[in-house]
Design brief:
Layout (H helix, E strand, L loop, with lengths): L4 H16 L4 E5 L3 E2 L39 H4 L2 H9 L2 E4 L6 E6 L2 H10 L4 E4 L4 E6 L5 E5 L2 E4 L5 E2 L9 E2 L2 H4 L30 H16 L5 H16 L7 H13 L4 H14 L3
Parallel strand pairs: 6-10
Antiparallel strand pairs: 1-2, 1-3, 3-9, 4-6, 4-8, 5-6, 7-8
Length: about 280
């Protein structure tokens, strides 16, 4: 359904007001999602902000990089390309981390009840199904830290639903702790891994074989010029399919792969997700 002109104009006015307060904004289209990348920026062709996850140089004049396109510049917000986006927008979003904020997104009544019992009181904004709790201070964004609870701060966007009620308080340690996972069990050292069933020797016990595989994987990620996230996933999949079933991979090997991926703009979270998805695809 096409929105009335006055509502679309109100989105732009809201965005300009927020930007004047130092809150980076961006338009949302139907479905409460950001505008997609334009053709010139698809597959990181623009040279920055791959897969909308990292900010970087880009000559694109449009709001097509999700949270990374959020801005406080009124000239950009009112520019021709952005104005056309506002005319199609169904809402306003903002980048909490860019405003030095953290949003605890409580998606249902049970999550709200949990927050009221466990989190310090702060500024609260009602949402369609729950509440946003706003704290002063940024942190990394993580979804599903517990049932119905997401953390939105750096490298994320939140929908603007008004100023809410209450007084905003400093980001507490109890919220930061929500993103800390229990350490994974230590992997067995390569020299303690039992031989495969059938009594054959494990070929990965040859240090040169494993080292060559890891080095080739690092090189493949480093030399990628587009579709970085897909390249990282496929590389992780290849490493795990070759080296992942006999326990020879160590934390040091995995750290090398994650470091190469993060040097290309991947976040630690996306590295972990890609690794987990690759393991799942292989039934590991």
């Amino acid at each position: 359904m096409t929105q009335p002109t006055d509502i679309r104009g109100e989105h732009l006015r809201t965005a300009l007001s927020l930007a004047a307060s130092g809150i980076p904004v961006l338009p949302l289209r139907a479905g409460k999602v950001p505008f997609g990348n334009c053709r010139r920026c698809a597959d990181n062709a623009c040279g920055g902000r791959p897969n909308m996850k990292t900010a970087g140089p880009c000559a694109c004049p449009g709001p097509c990089h999700a949270w990374a396109a959020a801005t406080t510049d009124p000239d950009v917000i009112q520019s021709g390309v952005w104005r056309r986006a506002w005319m199609r927008a169904t809402g306003v979003a903002y980048h909490p981390g860019g405003a030095w904020l953290t949003v605890v997104d409580l998606d249902n009544a049970d999550a709200v009840t949990w927050a009221r019992e466990n989190l310090p009181v702060t500024q609260t904004v009602a949402t369609t199904r729950g509440e946003h709790w706003l704290y002063q201070g940024p942190m990394r964004s993580v979804n599903a830290v517990r049932p119905g609870v997401d953390i939105k701060s750096t490298m994320a966007y939140a929908r603007w639903l008004g100023p809410g009620t209450g007084t905003m308080t400093e980001l507490p340690d109890v919220v930061r702790a929500l993103t800390v996972k229990e350490p994974a069990p230590a992997r067995p050292a390569a020299d303690t891994v039992p031989a495969p069933a059938g009594g054959g020797a494990c070929r990965h016990r040859t240090p040169a074989y494993l080292e060559r595989g890891i080095a080739m994987a690092e090189q493949r990620i480093t030399e990628a010029r587009s579709a970085i996230h897909a390249t990282v996933y496929r590389t992780f999949l290849a490493v795990l399919s070759t080296h992942g079933r006999c326990g020879c991979l160590t934390d040091a090997h995995i750290t090398r792969l994650f470091t190469a991926a993060q040097a290309k703009g991947e976040s630690a979270r996306h590295c972990t997700d890609a690794w987990t998805n690759a393991r799942t695809a292989l039934g590991m």
